[in-house]
Design goal:
The protein has 702 residues and is an alpha/beta fold. The protein is built from 26 helices and 14 strands. 27% of the residues are buried. It is a multi-pass membrane protein.
């Protein structure tokens, strides 16, 4: 009894199941009901078919041939005939005779089936022939005279079907199309009538849909600080309003692809304790006129109802592109109407207090100026490519789930990936893990990361590509020329390795460690150009002929020389003159210089390239023996590293800029740590003496 009472008490304490909660289905979705709209269609079809075959008499009729009908009449089985003259059909009532019923209806089963009103139907040639036949039969047998009635019937169902069937079919098709258009891609759950509703994903405090926080973001300290301040403003507004500050209306995240703009927005959604509306710029674009502006209005209406809140618009350039000054050229009225509505909602006559807008784009130069002004997007946060310190922190984040080999130098990986974004670094870590697994390793090693970087930059390694010994030798001379010239120039990028193993479309490559400079001088650009032309120069000096393998080198050197002359004003004849137009950077339609100036530009570019090519040839000629040793080593090993070049040419006398930055950063961190330790020691000493009296105080007390 006690056990049963305990069970009853436990059952009473358990709450009743909430019918609104999903019942154990994957993904937490509601179970689908067994009765759907298609079952309703099936029931309607069955009902219509039943009406079609229902004759209204409550009985079934057996259909017989006309010859059998004549035989039944002669045998006296027929009692009454009803002729439907407009259908050439006769309904025959059988005599109440067991023999007749058994023969005509097909035995006991047939009698049982048609027992309610034994009748048969027959298709007659015509009413006149049937009348003649019945008259003949009545004349031959006067005792068994058959009663014949003639009538015309109207099939109301068929008449209705042919009269209103096409209209009903059109209505059915219209309803079906409307239901199909109520999918996620067209108008949302409300169908075509809700196409103007905003399709924003709403993330509230209790959903916990986003697990990303600011702790998961590395290498973006400045941008993270700006966004954190917005989140803090929403959490503690009084801290700022007491000083007279106002909440910012919007922040625009600008930066190259893959630098973490959307990741920052996800972190805001994960950290902020306010509703978060997430949409893409393309969600406002629709084939119907006026839908974009309607969705903007609906989005801000929802946001005002849940204020304070945050609206995030990803890839805002899809809807915020600059409006055309010439209406007849490249005009898009629907997109411009959407942009106008967005401008009005962000800072119009109405009030949007408590609604903060975050937006992200990698094409800020294409945005409308009215969108970028203060009062709409008060802050423009640049999310640039990370430097070596940022890459180090990003590697620390993405290396957490990997099983790494002991002693892996993360600082080395950060140095080997200049120009990589956060997405690129994540791809490197994943690719390294795949390479290690492909090789059957138990942990990811340093070489796996190097192979991953090579794979991402150069493409897939193709060792089975067929090359002759002469071609292999020519490629080695070309790549050794790059390595030799870059090693002997002060401002050329430091060499990492040289390979003649084909990757992608390249037959060989020289891998450098680009100096991440904030400013570049003319001498640095000339050294880089000379290193690019080192391969063609080596071919010319050693082989006495040149090949097509220098196509990429010539392209890059020519573009660099053109930029020096046209953009940076670094030529002798066009010194301190720049023809760069930030509003039209590609100069597709018009050039801001005359034809005479264009000739001068061509001459200056050619002279710069020729000077650096001659300089590279002189370097190769002066170090031809060392260059030959390097080429032979490259042919033998196929891959050589900076250590191998150092053994032949000696150590470079110039320190790398990245090494200087890393060493200075370490010194700054060490000084900061020692300062914190000193401050902690001072505060600890004060705390330890805080409860004791000084000698003077003790003397005064006495």
């Amino acid at each position: 009894m006690e056990k049963n009472n305990q069970n009853q008490n436990q059952n009473q304490k358990q709450p009743a199941p909430d019918r609104r909660q999903p019942s154990g289905r994957p993904g937490g979705k509601f179970p689908r009901s067994g009765f759907g709209i298609y079952w309703l269609y099936l029931l309607i079809a069955v009902f219509l078919i039943g009406i079609l075959f229902y004759d209204g008499s409550g009985s079934l009729m057996k259909e017989v041939q006309y010859s059998d009908f004549q035989d039944y009449v002669r045998k006296g089985y027929v009692e009454k005939i009803t002729v439907v003259s407009n259908e050439n059909v006769a309904e025959v009532s059988l005599a109440d005779d067991s023999v007749a019923l058994y023969e005509v209806l097909g035995g006991a089963e047939g009698v049982k089936m048609y027992s309610r009103k034994p009748q048969v139907s027959v298709k007659i040639p015509s009413a006149e022939k049937l009348s003649d036949f019945i008259d003949e039969n009545n004349a031959s047998d006067a005792n068994r005279k058959i009663d014949v009635n003639y009538e015309e019937r109207q099939d109301f169902f068929n008449n209705f079907l042919w009269s209103f069937g096409p209209l009903l079919l059109l209505i059915f098709l219209w309803v079906f199309i409307m239901r199909r258009m109520s999918g996620p891609g067209v108008g949302g759950a409300g169908g075509i009538f809700s196409v103007g509703k905003a399709k924003a994903q709403v993330i509230d405090n209790e959903s916990n849909q986003i697990k990303v926080t600011f702790a998961d973001i590395a290498g973006l300290e400045e941008a993270k600080q700006e966004v954190q301040e917005i989140v803090d403003f929403l959490k503690n507004p009084q801290k700022y309003t007491d000083l007279g500050g106002k909440i910012p209306k919007g922040a625009l995240l600008i930066g190259p692809p893959g630098t973490g703009k959307t990741l920052l927005a996800k972190a805001v959604a994960g950290e902020a304790k306010v509703p978060f509306f997430s949409m893409s710029g393309s969600d406002f674009v629709e084939m119907f006129v006026g839908v974009g502006a309607s969705r903007v209005r609906d989005l801000f209406r929802q946001a005002k109802e849940k204020a304070p809140c945050i609206i995030f618009i990803d890839e805002i350039d899809a809807v915020g592109r600059a409006r055309s000054k010439n209406p007849s050229f490249s005009s898009n009225d629907e997109r411009e109407n959407t942009l106008n509505q967005l401008l009005t909602e962000m800072d119009g006559f109405g009030s949007n207090s408590g609604v903060i807008i975050l937006a992200a784009t990698n094409r800020a130069d294409m945005l409308d100026k009215a969108l970028l002004r203060a009062g709409r997007f008060d802050r423009q946060i640049n999310v640039d490519l990370p430097d070596v310190h940022g890459r180090y922190e990003i590697f620390q984040v993405h290396l957490r789930p990997l099983k790494l080999a002991p002693g892996l130098d993360v600082e080395f990986l950060a140095k080997q990936t200049p120009g990589f974004s956060g997405a690129d670094i994540a791809n490197v870590c994943n690719e390294a893990a795949l390479i290690a697994a492909r090789k059957g390793k138990k942990a990811v090693e340093r070489q796996d990361f190097m192979d991953a970087v090579d794979r991402i930059i150069g493409g897939l390694e193709r060792k089975n590509k067929i090359t002759t010994e002469a071609e292999k030798r020519s490629i080695a001379i070309h790549e050794a020329g790059h390595a030799s010239v870059s090693w002997l120039l002060q401002y050329a990028d430091p060499l990492v390795k040289v390979t003649i193993v084909p990757r992608g479309k390249a037959l060989g490559a020289a891998w450098y460690l680009p100096e991440e400079r904030q400013l570049t001088t003319k001498e640095q650009m000339l050294d880089e150009m000379c290193a690019l032309l080192g391969g063609r120069a080596a071919e010319s000096v050693v082989l006495g002929k040149v090949s097509t393998g220098a196509l990429n080198d010539l392209e890059r050197a020519s573009k660099m020389a053109y930029a020096m002359v046209v953009y940076y004003g670094m030529s002798d004849k066009l010194a301190n003159v720049s023809y760069f137009d930030s509003q039209q950077p590609d100069m597709s339609f018009s050039k801001p210089f005359s034809e005479a100036t264009a000739e001068i530009i061509d001459t200056e570019v050619k002279n710069i390239v020729e000077e650096q090519f001659a300089r590279a040839k002189d370097i190769i000629a002066s170090n031809r023996e060392k260059h030959g040793k390097l080429a032979d080593l490259l042919v033998e090993n196929e891959v050589i590293y900076a250590e191998d070049v150092e053994k032949i040419f000696g150590k470079r006398p110039w320190a790398s800029r990245i090494d200087e930055i890393i060493s200075s950063n370490k010194a700054a961190k060490a000084e900061e740590a020692s300062q914190k330790a000193a401050d902690a020691g001072t505060s600890g000493a004060e705390a330890s003496t805080g409860g004791q009296e000084s000698p003077e105080e003790k003397k005064d007390a006495e």
